[in-house]
Amino acid sequence: MIDEPTLGVDVEARHAIWSHLRLLKAGGTSIIVSTNYLDEALALCDTVAVLRSGKVLTAESPQALVARAGTCLDLECDPQGRGAIEQLLAKMEGILRVQPTPAGFFIFLASHIAPEDVLSKIFPLTTVNSFRLRGADLAEIFRVLDEATA
Questions:
Q1: Whole-number pLDDT of residue 38
Q2: For the domain that residue 126 is a member of, what is the CATH number?
Q3: How many domains does the chain have?
Q4: Nearest to 136 by CA among 116, 113, 111
Q5: Is 18 exposed, middle or buried (0-12, 13-18, 19+ CB in 10 A)?
Q6: Are 84 and 110 within one domain?
Q7: Nearest 5 degrees, angle CA 3-CA 6-CA 10?
Q8: pLDDT along the chain (150 residues), means of 10
Q9: Range of 38's domain?
Q10: Can you tell me the distance from the alpha carbon of 62 to that of 128, in angstroms, rounded to the nearest whole number?
């Protein structure tokens, strides 16, 4: 068991630790890693168990865990068009969740939904200042798991 192996280390040391753990894994050693870093779990683990208050919420592959939360489309837009966007997204299939932000929205898409399809429907409604596609972070995965167990 390794607890927070890269907490407080610099980038070079982090990658050296990751390389060593991968070498051990390739040699057949099973390793339990306790981490708060989603990227570390994605990089090193075959199975991720998520704990809350001492209880296992889920244990699955890192890819399955991230897929549960969906891909996030960070959208910055003109405030005048926010209502129209919310109405559009409420009707669209494959929108897992919409979270308003001061500049626009975080739009969580199911894995089968192409971001281009969503954006092509949003562009005619308002001015889009910027957008970015990213995977869910650890806080968002916890939120999804909490909602599923509530």
A1: 80
A2: 3.30.70.920
A3: 2
A4: 111
A5: middle
A6: yes
A7: 160
A8: 92 94 94 88 89 88 84 94 95 93 95 93 96 85 78
A9: 2-65
A10: 32
**How much is the pLDDT for 115?**
95
Q: Which residues of 33-51 are buried (b: 16+ CB within 10 A; e: fewer)?
A: bebebbebbeebbeebebe
pTM of this structure: 0.69
Q: Pairing mode, if any, of strands 71-77 and 95-100?
A: unpaired
pLDDT of residue 150: 66
The CA distance from 115 to 119, in Å, is 6
Residue 81 in tokens: 């068009």
Q: Are 45 and 39 in contact (CB under 8 A)?
A: no
Amino acid at 13: A
65 CB contacts (<8 Å, ≥6 apart)?
A: 48, 50, 58, 141
| Per-residue confidence (pLDDT) for residue 65, from 0 to 100 | 85
Beta strand 55-60 with 71-77: parallel, antiparallel or unpaired? unpaired
